[in-house]
Predict the structure.
Amino acid sequence: MTEQRPGGTDTWVGSLPMKVTLLGTGSPLPDPLRAGPATLVQAGGLHLLFDCGRGALMRLAAAGVAGPQALSAQLLTHLHSDHTTDLNDVITTRWIMSLVPAPLPLVGPVGTQRFVERTMEMLSDDVSYRIAHHEDLTVGPQVEVTEIADGPVDLDALAAAGVTIVAAPTDHRPVAPTVGYRIEHDGSSVVIAGDTVPCDGLDRLVTGADVYVQTVIRDDVIGQIPLQRLQDVCDYHSTVTQAAQTAARSGVGTLVMTHMVPAPPPGGEQEWIDLAAQHFDGTILAPQDLATIEV
Ligand SMILES: [Zn+2]
Ligand SMILES: [Zn+2]
């Protein structure tokens, strides 16, 4: 397993079964160095994008994937705005960068179909402008939604590439339903947990995983800030301690902390790693945007 930072052009030669790129390690709070939540998993020749927060396509280009037309699938853990704000960009830019119709496979929790229908309504003026202007564009963007609650994700591209993805329910209430994903290829496994507190579904996903990517908060820091709206985030995210305990309990190899709130300043990540290390003796990473992990 290797980690590089920052990422940059895609020189990956695929010596290991999977590559994880932290495209965006930020949160809803705008940050000049951290894009919104988005993680790229490359396996079996597939490019799988998990969530698509602020700046996702800029970071995707920096990771060496030229555009969303190259994505094999977009997957969403939940429909919170910080995880979906650039879905409209993925849909529109894939459409206009594809010279032949290229329906976007989109997987998400129950409610995703409705979310996409409303997104398409939002985009309808722009779609009409582009169809009027480009003679070769005769139909609008197409999105093929698969809603998943628990169990294997059924996509043709996955089976052909020897990649499996299993979803399980997570607990981010009152945001519900929400899901996490476990991706497996050639004996390696990666879990994209999304926003969740520890729960049975999460434990099922991460058991024995090589890499466990968890969004985390520092309740000890937030607890000192007298602002109720900030305090509210503590009860539906994993703390660093909880993420480390989940990793230890489930026998994972590497814990990757992302979506860190409040984001550590450059160089401040070690404090987060030290905190997690009190509960988990595996590898712990608190990466910046475009860090990569091969597994
Ligand atoms: Zn959320
Ligand atoms: Zn979030």
